Sequence to fold (884 residues):
Amino acid sequence: MIREGTLNIVILCLLVAVPAYAYVMNEPFTITLATRAVIFALAGVGLNLALGQGGLVSFGHAAYFGMGGYAMGILASHAQNYDPIFDGAFLIEGTNSMPVIWVVAVVSSALLALLIGALSLRTSGVYFIMVTLAFGQMFYYFAISWPAYGGEDGLSIYVRNQFPGLNTLDPIQFFGICFAILCLVLLFVDRLNKSPFGLALNGAHQNEERARTVGINVYKLRLVAFVISGAITGLAGALFADLNRFVSPTMFSWAISGEIMIFIILGGVARLFGPVVGAAVYILLEHFLGGLSDYWFIYLGAILLGMVLFAKGGIIGKLAKKETHHGG
Amino acid sequence: MSTILLIEQILNGLQFGVMLFLMAAGLTLIFGVMGLINLAHGSLYMIGAFAAAAVAGWSGNFLLALIASLIAAAIFGVIVEMTVIRRLYKRDHLDQVLATFALILIFSEATRWTFGSFPLFLDIPAVLKGTVILPGGIEYSLYRLTIILIGLAVALGLYLLISKTRVGMRIRAGENDREMIGALGVDISVLYTMVFALGAALAGLSGALVGAIQSVEVGMGEPVLILAFVVIVIGGIGSIRGALAGAILVGLTDTLGRTLLPVLFSSFMDGSAATTVGSALASMLIYILMAGVLIFKPTGLFGSA
Amino acid sequence: MADSILRVSDIHKSFGALKASDGITLDLRQGEIHALIGPNGAGKSTLIKQIAGGLRPDSGSVTFLDQDVTRHSVAERARLGLARTFQISALAMDLTVLENAVLGAIGQRGSVFSFFRPAMKNAGLLSQARAALAQVGLEEDEATITAELSHGQRRQLEVAVALTLAPKAFLMDEPMAGMGAEGSKALTRFLQELKHQAPILLVEHDMDAIFACADRISVLVYGKIIATGSVDDIRANPDVRTAYLGEEDAA
Fold:
């Protein structure tokens, strides 16, 4: 058993070492795999704030992942076609600048999470799971039936978006961008978890009645957490779309919501680095099991089932000893 | 739009609704009695459809296919309940969601492995092909009318089962108080397996009946599962009556929305834009309905506070 | 009443045909322990919920610090200084003792939406939490995970969390439940000091403890207060004897 903090540093080092090695060996595909892992991890870190820290089992985080993806797709497609998004009293043009796209992705998915959260948080428990799942599905169907941005076929973006001073088409440089964002978000979420807000969120998760009786407005608390959670997953969606240079309604599908949840469970619920480990392991399984069999989801399902029934706490729970979430 | 077309759409909505009811009734019963949220219910729907398609292909007999769908789904239900599900009753909802999600992955891939990725087709039997003339001169598909009747018969059967029989009394006791049912001297694990198998059989039957209208393929269960969740949220969890009301409301809203909204929008927009906006909005309509219920009655129309 | 801190006026609450609160009026005055007793099913829990804010009365009002709080939420009442303890400990079991107390301080100070400074390095929150722990004698155990506390210690922590709320009144639901005779006695002495800090509305089954520490007693039977008075008044009241104490004697 090792300290969770030490383990986290080892995890980050591994996450850099693999693409660095691939860069030296000139294996761009491996770098792309690592980038996928980093982006999935980011999506998972977002969900983990709501699910792990807050106990809000959202089965609809694909809505924010897809929202981020379409924010990128819509802005970039208008930019590549030189076709303004809105041309009336004022002019809104598309853009291929990553930072602008990120801001739009974060804001739009935060607003979506505010709307869905405000409704879903009126319920709890099993209702909450069903309602978030249903709202996620609503955006899936909307994306399919709205033809302006490709409908069912999705949108292809031919050139990766720009980041000042970097060549984003170089796999290792794009990996660097995604990795830097993941680190910044992890730092942010770590501070958030330790802040009064994080303690209150965790306290309300463990005992809602207690949180209320010390004067905490639990609904508002959870809504804010849900919005931040959705915004982070939305940012991951924008990066994912940029990685593939493609967005489609699939990003909104319930299976994506389930996958994001799997990252958290594989790694460890409410552990800061749980989704990071989980996403990396998921990518490894996908790569190696997927290479062995076309039906690798059977094995994934069996592993997931085994973990839920017999190995609560995920991989980090097995490797690191229990630390209090807020202790010093 | 003509009245006849409208009535036809209402009947279609009703048919869609009773199918959703078969799914939602099982889900809500399983939740009410065992406190379990079962995402793999869609897989049982799929299993019913595949079993029906396979047996129909082999025997050519539709009735045999329907019986096969009931039996196959019930058997799988019993197996899953005894190996996995019963370990989940005392777990939290997150564990239930994850474990039953894992079951979806396993069932879907196993079905793909067995039957391949191409959809199967289940033919409507010859006796039920064609149309009937309803009172008022409305011509309507005999098969869809049969589905409506089967669905309503199942609803009546469930009502009688739960309100009039000994098993039903135990189910009601289980819903109200899980401790009490043990005190009644009922073997609780047998009751749970039976309830789960009943829910599974209803899902399987539903899959088989719909399979003859649509194609039978892997992944067909989950969209229906999510719609059944919408039904349950609207109707109120644990209530069969709520499931029936919610299912018919959702069926009608969805079907009529898809027909009427584009027409409605074309009254003040030009044709193609109206179709686009109307059908996009129609695809969201039942979720908007659900949002409305959440605002005004978060426990559902028939749910208790 | 000028010195009444908390006042319940003519509260009615029905569940179907059952009248759980049938015109209840009572008040809590500065510096007193006011005990609420009654047989099981008399409607004590329902009344407590309405005072704390978890349940809204059908009619009637709740006044706290001269303010009508009938429509306030649990959290709003808590922020005004209405501190509640539970019959079954309501604590965040995986957090430490100190973290539970800090949670109270966060709620009381309204600093829920501060996102960056670590809560456990915030001197203001910590001193408020530690003062409350010291008052109940849990300062040595601040680093213990709450789930590992003994039953009696959890009851103490329950009170400590209430103390972080800068309480103007306490609402205590069976604080003696599950405590041994020694623990009960110690808690009784503690409550007699605590009442000078803020008055206590005490729901309790332990009659010895109540007769030892209550300044006034109200007897609730079938949703109605049948008597209010000093310990001696209540002991002597024939209605109370038949309705309630008689049962106790028989039991």
Chain A has one domain: 4-319.
